[in-house]
Structures are given as C-alpha cells and as structure tokens.
Amino acid sequence: GAVVSQHPSWVICKSGTSVKIECRSLDFQATTMFWYRQFPKQSLMLMATSNEGSKATYEQGVEKDKFLINHASLTLSTLTVTSAHPEDSSFYICSASSLAGREQYFGPGTRLTVT
Amino acid sequence: KQEVTQIPAALSVPEGENLVLNCSFTDSAIYNLQWFRQDPGKGLTSLLLIQSSQREQTSGRLNASLDKSSGRSTLYIAASQPGDSATYLCAVFDNYGQNFVFGPGTRLSVLP
C-alpha cells in the first residue's frame, strides 16, 4: 500500500523559534497533501490543503502566516510553525492523495511540544 | 456544512464481546467514508474504506456498513480483544469540499 512518512516524529522547541515538519509520499505521487492538527482528546482538524506547485488553502481560523506550507514537489510537503508558542503544542498529521485514488494516506504524525 | 457525529463517545466491554460503533453524517452527498483507528499519540490507521456506491466492507473481524440515504455507518467488531482498545474515528470524504470531515471518535476499551 501507499506509504506516507513524516519527519521528525517528535520535536521539542523553545517558544519563539520555528519548526519545520516534512511529509513525504514514498511510493506514489501526491498531487494533494493535507495537514491536520489534533489537540488532546479532540478530533483531528484539517488545517490546510496543498496542491503541488500552488499555494495552500487554509481552513478558517488557521493563520497562514504562522503555519507556512510548501508543496514544492509531488512527493514532499512541509509545514513550518513560525514563532511557535506553547499553545501550538499539538499532534500534527499529514495525509496525501493521488489524483487517481482520492483515498488519503496518512503519515504517522509529529508530536510538537513548545516550552 | 457536513457534520459527523459518533455514538457512543466511550465504550468499555469485556473481551470476546461483539460490538457496534455508530457514525452519523448530515449531508448524504459523500464520495466515500472511512473508519480509522488511533492509538494514543499515534497517527491514524485506516481500517475500512466504503465508496458511496457500496453498502459494506469487511476486513477480518471488522465489518463496516453504509446507509447513505439515512446518513449512517456502523463499524461492527466481532470477538473483541484487548488489542482492539483504541479510539475509532469515522470520516466522510466530502464530495463538495474535497476533503475529509472527521467525527469526534469513540474510545473503546476491551477488558481482559
């Protein structure tokens, strides 16, 4: 089956610094990648949708200047949390879909802790 | 706007029992519906995918049904095991929004 990887799996950073999370589709071309965020005991919430080569579409309430998404190739999307604050601590999950299948394949997630 | 709900929010059963998890959605115009499993702190594992034209899918001890007209799906787990303990999420692929809308999940505990 299709495999999506994320790196790093967990990261701890200090308040005010920026953190980059990578999402890669390992064995298929992902025309669309999705970024989700999950706070403890809450459901997964979509943050943004990115299509290769174009700007990401952000969900309402998600600050696009704070969460920078780049989808420069068909196998890689990055999420950069800029000037991170403790309230940004969360579990970030990406998913990817190819044009053909529409099924989303999920990465293992990245646990971000901002101190 | 599509909304997805899941009942019950939490469920605790003894090992060996058969159980049913319920998922409801408000807009029947969906492309597909997926059931996921999430272990604490981990990413989602896709369990079953049901296309909008299908009525059910089976994988091992799992069976998922879909009644699009009534906006309901059920996940049936046979002969539950302690290893089945996890949070189960259903999500509909919204044909309009081109993305998933998730339910809040059901936390399942299977007691040995």
Walk me through the structure.
Chain A has strands at residues 4-7, 10-13, 19-25, 32-38, 45-51, 57-58, 67-73, 76-81, 90-97, 105-106, 110-114. Chain A has 115 residues and is mostly beta strands. Chain A is globular and about 40 Å long. The termini of chain A are far apart. Chain B has 112 residues and is mainly beta. Chain B has strands at residues 4-7, 10-14, 19-25, 30-38, 44-51, 56-59, 62-67, 72-77, 86-94, 99-102, 106-111. Chain B starts with a strand and ends with a strand. The model of chain B has no long low-confidence stretch (mean pLDDT 89).
Short description:
The complex is a heterodimer of chains A (115) and B (112). Helix content of chain A is 0%, strand content 51%.
From the N-terminal CA to the C-terminal CA of chain B, the straight-line distance is 41 Å
Low-confidence parts of chain A lasting 5 or more residues at pLDDT below 50? Answer: none
Please provide the count of β strands of chain A: 11
Total helices of chain B: the number is: 0
Strand proportion of chain B: over 45%
Oligomer designation: heterodimer
Total helix count of chain A?
Answer: 0
Strand content of chain A: over 45%
> H/E element string of chain B?
EEEEEEEEEEE
Largest β sheet strand count, sense and barrel closure of chain A: 7 strands, mixed
Unreliably modeled segments of chain B: none
Based on secondary structure, the structural category of chain A is mainly beta
Topology:
The complex is a heterodimer of chains A (115) and B (112).
Chain A (H helix, E strand, L loop, with lengths): L3 E4 L2 E4 L5 E7 L6 E7 L6 E7 L5 E2 L8 E7 L2 E6 L8 E8 L7 E2 L3 E5 L1
Parallel strand pairs in A: 2-11
Antiparallel strand pairs in A: 1-3, 3-8, 4-5, 4-9, 5-6, 7-8, 9-10, 9-11
Chain B lengths: L3 E4 L2 E5 L4 E7 L4 E9 L5 E8 L4 E4 L2 E6 L4 E6 L8 E9 L4 E4 L3 E6 L1
Parallel strand pairs in B: 2-11
Antiparallel strand pairs in B: 1-3, 3-8, 4-5, 4-9, 6-7, 7-8, 9-10, 9-11
